[in-house]
């Protein structure tokens, strides 16, 4: 690995986090307002403007960020300061790290060099992402514990229990599909889907299970128990300013990561049906690989956005679960179903061959 | 950095819910003793919105209490207005003209719908179904516009007077109501689709906050809360007042007395209330007092005519008055107000144009004159949004009440709340407390 390769990885990771993650997270803040407004017969965000141009409220995320950054960072007396400060960083850092391991595109030939569009190419990318996602809960538990508030503590307890319940199902629902692909690498999984068929066709149950467990992991309605605004206000009850904003972004980041994983493993990643992007990326014709790279990125982003739209739609339609009902759902329904799915897949493959 | 661990032997911890808490509508405080997420003990503290309504009423004249009743249950203020006016009229022995009674029924039932819409919507929102809340609040807004059209205010209606209502129905009210009713039905149907068979919603509300029939009766609970346990007690049917005995409506009852039944009861009652209003608008008698369409003139012009002695001419015209006095002209006045000169203000034309009317007006509005009700006392109950809303009024012969006692329906439900919550989880506080539909203005008075 040359130092230029290393630089390229740094550029890719930076782009994944700053261009892809942060932008979509900001956009999600807007989508959340505007989509819910359309759903609920309201107008929604339309006030923030730059020289009188409102652009359908698209400047609201910017106004939000400015507000969060300039607000007082209030700390109650009961707060355990170092833990209180480090908690949002852990939660957000875990989400950001996952972004760097997603396959945004394949490999393209340009200027006599092969450029991979996946920031961190790791042969065990899938477990890496799942492990990093699970790390995020430490931030929540820490935040709730360090708040010195009973509400925060309850939120942390709920967060921890919910995370374990959804995490187990998250991994086990992927077992079948990964067994089928015969790889733990995102890029290989995408290529398998390109060579055969998209994961959602062969593993529809796993798709639904993963989507449900993933939605539970993102802590958004109907799974927003750790926040449960009208019940316990949540683990971030003692947070304000940008520290609170970081928790907010974390939720969006986790949504993006979950949608990215689903895209990569079930919806063919950066593939476009009917178009051999992998071959185009290797084409000797000048600039064709560049076009292929752009199409890969666009395809991946489009699929992620479509899934995020679906998650938002669910978020504004369903009421919230109760704590014990969510654990029942995770442990008694999702987990057995995903194990069953895994067994069926293994037997299916065994009999097929 | 110290971590306080005062008592290691204690297995439970205290959680202070309220008075400032997103789910504690208005202000009420629940002190929960928790064991993890399970509630071991509940202490319910009320009184944060005490405004001394009853004491205040003692220093007001009979009619001046009406605006204070708006602030009792502020999501169905018209029922409070009607309940208070009926209680005073029972003491005074005043009979309201039929058209006035129908208008009171229409106003009450519209208010009942807004009450139920608010309750169901707010509970749904607190359970996370924010969209349902906005659908129902949108429907409520249409009804508020109708109420605004009728009374001149959305919430602070002050619509009734001793002996009648402020004014007649505005023009095209029936058509406007038909339009609004269609919109309300659509919103209710949408919410019904989103909630009633929704697995998550059913899991949250079924078998939570269960109250037995016997307990409900023992606590003195009325309204949808009682009916959900299977007791078909409705003041409108049990002790018919106004013209309620002339309508065909059902009293929805539940069977299990849980939050789900209460939700279903309220949803069904919305439809029944709309039906009552539709029937009332069909049955309502035409105004007898409406003259041939008179030409409008400003009140001061009529006054000038009177000064010139053109009393014959005055009769041809109707007074153009301030918008807030709409419906108080002589064309409609006699239809909606009792014809008791000692209790009912004269029509505005009379006040502005002749000395008898003016004197009558002043005798009723001057301090220490007003309506004199002989010493007596009485209780009158109407069916409020939450149950039996009663007013016990004592008269001592003065121009105002000696004592007004309000029986707020949700006080009795709040008394039973700890019993409902004990042994459930924190998350169950939300639907159970939501189904109480506690209105702090009415609870604390």
Keywords:
A: mainly alpha, two-stranded antiparallel ribbon, 67% helix, B: 445 residues, alpha+beta, three-stranded antiparallel beta sheet
Low-confidence stretches of chain B: none
Secondary-structure element order of chain A, as H and E? HHHEEHHHHHHHHH
Q: What is the first-to-last residue Cα distance of chain B?
A: 46 Å
Characterize the overall form of chain A.
globular
The rounded Rg of chain A comes to: 21 Å
Question: What composes the largest sheet of chain A?
Answer: 2 strands, antiparallel
Report the strand count of chain A. 2
Widest β-sheet, arrangement of strands of chain B: 1-2-3
Percent helix of chain A, as a range, is 55-70%
Average of per-residue pLDDT values of chain A? 87
Beta content of chain A comes to under 5%
Q: Kindly state the mean pLDDT of chain B as a whole number?
A: 85
Structural class of chain B: alpha+beta
DSSP strand content of chain B: 5-15%
Number of helices, counting only DSSP H or I runs of 4 residues or more of chain B: 19
Order of strands, widest sheet of chain A: 1-2
General description of the model:
The complex is a heterodimer of chains A (353) and B (445). By secondary structure, chain A is mainly α. Chain A has helices at 3-39, 60-70, 81-99, 125-146, 150-181, 186-195, 199-202, 204-217, 241-266, 277-281, 288-315, 323-352; strands at 107-110, 113-116. In chain A, strand 1 and strand 2 (113-116) form a beta hairpin. The mean pLDDT of chain A is 87. In chain B, the strands form four sheets. In chain B, strands 1-2-3 form a three-stranded antiparallel β-sheet. In chain B, strand 8 (376-383) and strand 9 (388-395) form a beta hairpin. In chain B, helix 4 (98-126) runs antiparallel to helix 11 and helix 17 packs antiparallel against helix 18. Chain B has helices at residues 53-58, 66-70, 77-92, 98-126, 130-151, 173-195, 199-205, 213-219, 224-227, 235-238, 259-283, 299-307, 311-314, 330-336, 348-353, 355-365, 409-421, 426-436, 440-444; strands at residues 13-17, 29-35, 38-45, 160-161, 164-165, 295-298, 317-320, 376-383, 388-395, 401-407.
